[in-house]
């Protein structure tokens, strides 16, 4: 008769043999565990049966192979990032060091391209309003639909359907809030122009910069240096010159339908813009850009579609529809989609503050384009204003850091919580480690 333990062992061995598995021989005692307490604490590999014929190569404390490989890869990447950041920041940086980097000029170039996109959307909106097609929510719906068509397939291809579904369950509500802030910021800003004059609405845009600085300081732990605050103030001074020239020429819009209502709408729109810009900077520093833009598109279609159905229905029925209007809508959508696609780059390489300050030059480009389209005359103060805004950006980056604003304080030591994407400090560090061979295996990991 077998003892109860011997019987269970026999049944267990028989089942394993039945399905083609074999079991190592065990000592006569039958019940001695393969790994003793000492083996588990010392991490010594065990040879079952004591004959050395087979070794497992792991101990009870070892994680599975794929986990070990993932951990090893993460550790190698962290070491490469640390070495790369140390190398980049160890340079003898001077007050003008960042101005000599390609990143600075890329930030300026992208910022001006974004300003041109904003000018393009304003121009096409003016064309639409000129023929009585005033549909602020509906015309933006096409932008979100285009973002969805471009970036959702990329996201599904990169992540796979199951991982994408997990992201929806885990972070979908965060992306919904980001899209909601963006949609409503667009809507109330456009609505403000229908009630207040242009001068008042543009002055209220300064509030978005204030919101960005305050939110970044208190929520994202960004610490601005005096030279950066001075740069922002110089940029705002340049914008003030632009507004003053408009007032002198009498192109500030004159009397408004309802100044109080328009100013409140403008203040709300600027606040929502500021919050959404900071939130998007936080997102794109942690997640791939294509993922962020895909969710902005998907939720933007839903939110903006409902809003357009409620508030633009009457205006939609009374609007003018012809081939020319369709062309203006296409132009508006393309300009806005390019804007949305490039915005994450400047948020990574710079910051939400740099993003908003760059957009102050949109008024300058608007007048330049207006001279060809609407017959505007360039006032002598406009070039001064443009130069002041660019000088303010230069002053902003005179902080002596070779990485500028790309190194985000909320990503932890060595940017461990960030994504190694285009424009991020983490990718710059990995590339520096690979190029200089600072860490063994860093090149392969980078």
Automatic annotation (TrEMBL):
Q: Does the keyword Transcription regulation apply?
A: no
> What SUPFAM superfamilies does the entry give?
Multidrug resistance efflux transporter EmrE
Say which domain of life the source belongs to: Eukaryota
Q: Where is the composition biased (Low complexity)?
A: 46-62
* One Gene Ontology CC term in the entry: membrane
| Protein location | Membrane
Where is this protein chiefly located?
A: membrane
Q: Which UniProt keywords apply?
A: Membrane, Transmembrane, Transmembrane helix, Transport
Q: Which GO terms describe its molecular function?
A: transmembrane transporter activity
In what way does this protein cross or attach to the membrane?
Multi-pass membrane protein
The keyword Disulfide bond appears for this protein: no
Transmembrane domains' residue ranges: 95-115, 127-154, 175-193, 199-219, 226-244, 264-283, 290-310, 325-347, 354-374, 380-399
UniProt record similarity statement: Belongs to the SLC35F solute transporter family.
Which protein, by its recorded name, is this? Answer: DUF914-domain-containing protein
Q: Which organism is it from?
A: Trichocladium antarcticum
């Amino acid at each position: 008769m077998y003892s109860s333990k011997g019987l269970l062992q026999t049944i267990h061995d028989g089942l394993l043999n039945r399905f083609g598995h074999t079991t190592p021989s065990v000592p006569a005692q039958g019940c001695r565990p393969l790994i003793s307490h000492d083996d588990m604490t010392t991490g010594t590999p065990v040879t079952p049966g004591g004959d050395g014929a087979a070794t497992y190569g792991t101990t009870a404390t070892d994680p599975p192979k794929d986990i070990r490989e993932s951990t090893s890869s993460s550790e190698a990447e962290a070491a490469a990032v640390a070495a790369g950041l140390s190398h980049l920041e160890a340079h003898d940086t001077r007050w003008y060091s960042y101005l000599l980097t390609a990143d600075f000029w890329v930030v300026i170039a992208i910022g001006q391209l974004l300003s041109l996109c904003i000018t393009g959307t304003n121009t096409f909106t003016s064309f639409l309003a000129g023929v009585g097609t005033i549909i602020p929510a509906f015309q933006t719906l096409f932008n979100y639909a285009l973002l969805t068509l471009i970036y959702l397939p990329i996201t599904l291809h990169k992540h796979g359907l199951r991982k994408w579904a997990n992201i929806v369950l885990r972070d979908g509500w965060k992306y919904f809030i980001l899209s909601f802030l963006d949609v409503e910021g667009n809507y109330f800003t456009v609505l403000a122009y229908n009630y207040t004059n242009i001068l008042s609405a543009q002055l209220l845009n300064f509030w978005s910069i204030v919101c960005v600085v305050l939110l970044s300081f208190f929520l994202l732990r960004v610490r601005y240096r005096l030279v950066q605050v001075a740069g922002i103030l110089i940029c705002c001074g340049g914008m003030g010159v632009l507004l003053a020239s408009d007032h002198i020429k009498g192109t500030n819009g004159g009397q408004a339908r309802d100044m109080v209502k328009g100013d409140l709408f403008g203040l709300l729109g600027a606040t929502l813009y500021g919050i959404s810009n900071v939130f998007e900077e936080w997102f794109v520093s942690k997640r791939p850009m294509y993922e962020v833009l895909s969710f902005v598109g998907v939720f933007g279609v839903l939110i903006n579609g409902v809003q357009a159905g409620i508030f633009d229905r009457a205006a939609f029925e009374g609007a003018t529809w012809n081939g020319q209007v369709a062309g203006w809508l296409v132009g508006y959508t393309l300009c806005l989609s390019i804007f949305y696609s490039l915005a994450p780059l400047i948020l990574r390489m710079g910051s939400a503050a740099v993003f908003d300050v760059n957009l102050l030059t949109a008024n300058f480009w608007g007048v330049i384009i207006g001279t060809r389209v609407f017959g505007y005359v360039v006032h002598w103060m406009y070039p001064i204003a443009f130069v002041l805004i660019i000088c303010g950006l230069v002053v902003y980056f005179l902080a002596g850091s070779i990485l500028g604003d790309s190194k985000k304080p909320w990503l932890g030591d060595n940017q461990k919580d960030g994504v190694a994407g285009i424009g991020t400090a983490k990718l710059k560090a990995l590339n520096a480690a690979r190029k200089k061979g600072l860490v063994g295996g860093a090149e392969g990991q980078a």
